[in-house]
Amino acid sequence: MKRLVLKTIVAAVAVAAFGIACAQERTIKFTTQNPEGHPLVMGMHKFADIVAAKSGGKIKVNLFPGGALGGDGPVISAMQGGTIEMASMNTSYLAGQVKEFAVFDFPFMFTNSKEADAVVDGPFGKQMHAKLDAKGLIGLTYWELGFRNITNNKRAIAKVEDIAGLKLRVIPTPINVDWVKTLGANPTPMTFGEVYAALEQGAIDGQENPLTVIAANKLFEVQKYVTLTNHQYNPQSVLISKKFWDTLSPAEKKIISDAAVESTVYQRQQARLQATTALETVKKGGMQVTELSPAEVEKLREKMRPVIAKFAVSVGQDTVKGLQDALAQARASK
Description:
2 domains; four-stranded mixed β-sheet; globular; DctP_fam
């Protein structure tokens, strides 16, 4: 038994040494829209540390949080062109490249993070990322942003009807525009980098995001009310430019792939820890927190069903069924 353990350790050391020996001096630019302190950026730091360790310092990952390299749309184009190597972004933005990604925008599909992990880490999540190859992007893993909630400056939202008339920023995709319209509100598509200023200037009344995003970006400074709707869960894709990826050796690809997977565990832990503290942060920041009653949540779900049915046609019934089957399997394994 001791010999087997020793052989395993020796083999692992040999593999690590081989990876270091095969790695070339490289620099990776890794960007996201969220600021320092956000769980996504914490995941980026962990990824950079792991890559440095596995490559013996030969592969350096430079981080550009807070949208320092531009909005998600321009970043996608830059990655396709090979001028930005990596990004972490909401899967919503990938629907413009591969229409099937809009399935992750369907409201009330996921009920908790555990089943989300099972879906994105399983065959369905891998199949979705594989569709990006032809678009010049490689999906390495999925990180967590969390469940989305609605904030605004006009009034507390205690019932579904309270949403009507509000001018809400949405991620610029058709389904997000549509579900906000369905609730009688006025959707305003906008990249996240513009949101704080738009709220501060009164150009929009509100927006919707997970509590960690609201807290990290200090939206409590420009918003009075938050309602815990938990209406949407968007996985965050960790992407690498295919142009850059194709220049890597197999050993370098393994270093980066393994680092992405290893950092995912840490990133999700941080996201879930901060989800609790973020609620206290926004309260301390002066926001009034409202939780919808079960009856109002069910009313909200009912309002969303026609939207889901409509977009199931354009996304593709096979993709919708694939997600529903993966969810059913995750729930059955509890």
